[in-house]
Fold this protein.
Amino acid sequence: MPQISQRGNEMPASPIRKLVPFAEIAKQKGRKVYHLNIGQPDIKTPEAAMLAVKNWDVKVVEYSHSAGHLSYRQKLSQYYKGIDISVDENEIMITTGGSEAITFAFLACLNPGDEVIIPEPFYANYNGFATAAGVKVIPITSTIENNFALPPVEEFKALIGPRTKGIVICNPNNPTGYLYSKQELQSLREIVLENDMYLFSDEVYREFVYDGETHFSAMQLEGMESNVILMDSVSKRYSACGVRIGAFITKNKEVMATAMKFAQARLSPPSYGQVIGEAALDTPKQYFDEVYQEYIERRDYMVEALNKMQGVYCPTPKGAFYTVVRLPINDSGQFAQWLLEEFAYENQTVMVAPADGFYSTAGLGKNEVRIAYVLKIEDLKSAMKVLEEALKVYPGRTILSL
Amino acid sequence: MPQISQRGNEMPASPIRKLVPFAEIAKQKGRKVYHLNIGQPDIKTPEAAMLAVKNWDVKVVEYSHSAGHLSYRQKLSQYYKGIDISVDENEIMITTGGSEAITFAFLACLNPGDEVIIPEPFYANYNGFATAAGVKVIPITSTIENNFALPPVEEFKALIGPRTKGIVICNPNNPTGYLYSKQELQSLREIVLENDMYLFSDEVYREFVYDGETHFSAMQLEGMESNVILMDSVSKRYSACGVRIGAFITKNKEVMATAMKFAQARLSPPSYGQVIGEAALDTPKQYFDEVYQEYIERRDYMVEALNKMQGVYCPTPKGAFYTVVRLPINDSGQFAQWLLEEFAYENQTVMVAPADGFYSTAGLGKNEVRIAYVLKIEDLKSAMKVLEEALKVYPGRTILSL
């Protein structure tokens, strides 16, 4: 029997995946499970964008250009100009989700054995894309005590070796909800330029920024044309995760030409998704205002509810729709499993994502979980009540002084 | 300025890509260009399948299961059972086009530095997927004199070294149109089992088989459950290239579990494409009968027309909708460029794919081109006339005795 590959062995499984059988158990017991564990919003996809697909009148669903429909890229360039990111249609490649943009970035810019520094906790699938590309992830720890701010420049510099070729950030951040400031981006600029590296910036939550803050993009940094790769997606912006449309954006012509060779091999991004993505660019401001109101209400409720629970600490996330929260527990994996397997409050329970899956450094995140506030407010309220009651009786509860 | 990756440098550009600017020149001169160079069929996508997308009534376009919608996989399992391939829904993973199935196969089964043997000429993008995965392609030459039959077993055995971990076939073949016989598959079985290797079988043209021949699938080989990976796609079967839906199929549970980790990292295949793919499984036989009639008429016309031209040899392809044809020329790249840049017959010209791009061995394919018979018969007739006239006056014409 032939062997599977070493990278296949090393490929990390999703941190949530191992909980799925326990969620099944809870459901078999007839319990309602509130899913706080995944980033699948319940927000409706804009109707006009979905209508564009229904009205798309072609006889043959053909391959598109490998970089995506020109009309879409042109319109997308206008969208970016509207948010002060100056890119033209040749600096944008449409990808199969943000996932493929990350893959192309790693394949085009990095050699097997090269390293990228990523502030942890970070989006766990970066590990998977890195493993597939033979790239090594070097974590740099951001802490809940510091509300997950960017670690100091000196700490970055201490990690840079001969194989360090880039820094990956997610801004606003999944899983922490942290929004990097302009100053923090400027610090990254300094490190990146000094070491002739790439800055891979995942900005798929760009529109989810709260409290009057503004998003500062890596593409707005000066003198970084050769260094910045922007990775984007329509999934969260328009609650259209299933269309699998993202974008790979850079002003570095050589990198774009190289990424295009990988794009040409896979022929084209999905046609229907491109139609919906292009139409979604006309989504009226009102849609985003309503989404904003919805999320801010959820966030505010959740943060307050969590911080009222004894021994719980939740920083106030400034963006995205996640938070990493510290609980009075010492094994978040066991806690998450216990919630599903053992616990119920009024026949309900919650599913959370253990935060250790978002850290590369062993041992970190054991007393933290990620919560996605993607449930409507009534459900979120019930879920918070369930969590509060669960913590009161959890056998593995620890006493923390904050 | 940071460097691009070595694999990015090594990544081959599409063999047709370099001709694109010359096609533009022809169009600027007001010439009609017949595209014999690409596998984009002009056949209509089945209407009922497209209607399924229009009628798909969801409010949120969510992620699907990473292996694809369960209902689709269940129905697909019935489709395979109907053609004597026994696989259940857990042995099928829906992928983003056949392209992603190939990528997952290489990532899950092969280590960087491992080798796969591929009969050449072969689908040029295998080079790209191999380069991305760090896999080395070892070509084994099939010849036009032999109508591109499978090379003898001894030639395979002579190429097998310690890093040889698999054989890749495309059956029916792109670019040659060759259909591998049951005996040829049995020969491959022997080699693969003897050397504990994988057999990666790309069968996306399965339905395009002519002259009463039947397709024998690698999945029908006995005692090969651990060795065979089937890579499939809806692109050609239903003329739906743009939906980007394929399948990764294996009875090897460990390989499937490993491929699933790569699939989970990229979250899910495109939702709209899955809807159309599932609905397309109900396409009535009449559709395929009409498509068959159309292709057989085109093929027969083309083969006869080509073989009537002086110094031209075209084997009769038994499957797919391509042929590799020998022309009285000694540089097919120059010839293809000349057709677009210089030549016109009644203000028309043709674009062909130089066959050297489908060979790994340097120097081969220089007097061959791939022709895709994806044009309606009137256009194909005109295109053949253009080619005939072009060969009469091409300055680089050679005299070949066949």
User: Anything to note?
Assistant: The mean pLDDT of chain A is 96. Chain A has two domains: 6-44+286-393, 47-280. The two ends of chain A are 54 Å apart (CA to CA). Chain A touches chain B through 77 residues (CB under 8 Å).
